[in-house]
Amino acid sequence: MKALLDEINLENGSNYKKAVLEKYSDNELLKRVFAMALDKVTYSYGITMKNITYTTVDAPYGDLETSLDVMEQEFVTRTTTGNKAKELLINMLSILSEDDAYVIERILDRDLKTRLGRSEVNKVWKNLIVKPPYTRCEIGTEANILKNMPVDKDGNFINKVYSEVKMDGTFRRAVKDGEEVEITSRPGIESSFPLIEGQLQSLEIEGVVFIGEMTLRGEQNRSTGNGIINSDDIPHKDVLFTVWDMVPVNEYSMTKAEIKAAEKAGTLSLYEDRFAQLEELLSESMDNVELIEYRIVKNMKEAFEHFLEVTERGDEGTVIKAHDMTHKDGNSKKQLKVKLVIELDVRIVSFNEGNKGSKNEAYFSGINYTNDEGTIQGSVGVTSLTEDIRDWFHEHRDEVIGDVMTLFCNDITIARDSEVYAMSHPRYDMLRGKDKVTDSLVRALEQKQMAMEMKARVR
Q: How far apart are CA 372 and CA 432, in angstroms?
């Protein structure tokens, strides 16, 4: 098996690697090795090679397939854990050849050293590597709110509804199911955060997946903070893991069919229970792990009041969650983004040059705007544009200076040290031409009030 992995690594080109993998696509053992190394949903071992030392025998009498069986039967099922798992692993490695022991090490380290990821492997063996589940928010439309967060005749929620600050960091999940805490990003890439791992390990609970986002303490710029967290030079003491859910491992790794069956049987955990347990666990202050900021709201008016408090201090927004939300992969209608949709016409005044080292370095980083009375000013980032629209603006910069464009935003705010208002998270919609009139501040604030009242009237 090691010889096959070495062959894949003879050249660095992805086409070569894929060709070698396709050549051995009928090799069931190779297929199994890739699955057990890269599929972190189906295969969670609760043990790593950390602090494991062993010496192989001169005449090995173990074999790789049997060792993989042991890993599935003893480690994946958590039949054997802790010191007993370490002893079993050491004994297992000691009777293997050096090459087979190397393969086991690579599996437990989640890195076969082939530079092949999930997408490349799944092109050869369809759906072999399960994508880590990720629960997305739906938009808080009237229909979604009424269906999933029902209200009484007075417009108050019948059941408990949470309003939580929407984080603006980089998503992480932390599996605590054994002696090690394994932290992975949204696509499943593992990374090490020793301080956070240690603090989660100290919690008296096993068999759970913590779900949240990491931010850099004190850093206001999202892209800068996320870039540092994802770099090779992480200031670990300043990284904060903000957690909003804690899902049992057995539920987290369910297939969609299993989730559907469990939902029908009513055996899945509810958000209200998971969150209460999480809040109790995190009741004592930790340096690098914290609970999401939240409040219980009794109606949409209170939900939007919380939203405004959050956006006016500069955060992105809020998410409301139903008490009976279950964990799932995909969009959840019981987890809704709160948004004010405000549409304003403003005038283009200039372009900001692209940030050095970014993919937009050769283009621009933002379009600066103002209304004609000068009371609303700001910049709409290039990331709110599609590549086609970005390219068009790049080619027609001089022509569009002075044009009116329509932007959507979540809020209109004013900073404490500023005399002008700005849009919160503006998004480009269309060009309107030079002859159009821009919206006044009065008109903008009227739109904001109308949006709030429309949402608050939800029944």
A: 14
The verdict on 334 and 347 lying in the same domain is no
Signed CA dihedral, 209, 211, 214, 215: sign only: negative
Per-residue pLDDT tens for 75-127? 988 888 888 999 999 999 999 999 999 999 999 988 898 888 888 898 899 88
Residue type, 298: K
Which among 275, 257, 242 is positioned nearest to 329, based on CA atoms? 257
Give the C-alpha separation, 262 to 40, whole Å.
22
Report how far apart the first and last C-alpha atoms of the chain are (Å, whole number).
Answer: 63
In which residue are the tokens 């062993």 written?
Answer: 54
DSSP label of 355: P
3 state DSSP class of 351: strand
User: What is the DSSP pairing of strand 330-338 with strand 135-139?
Assistant: parallel
Rounded to the nearest 5°, which phi and psi values hold at 295? Answer: -150, 155
Q: How far is CA 456 from CA 142, 300, 343, 459, in A?
A: 10, 5, 19, 8
Q: Distance between CA atoms of 140 and 137, rounded to whole angstroms?
A: 9
Identify the CATH number of the domain in which residue 364 sits.
2.40.50.140
Q: Which domain holds residue 398?
A: 342-456
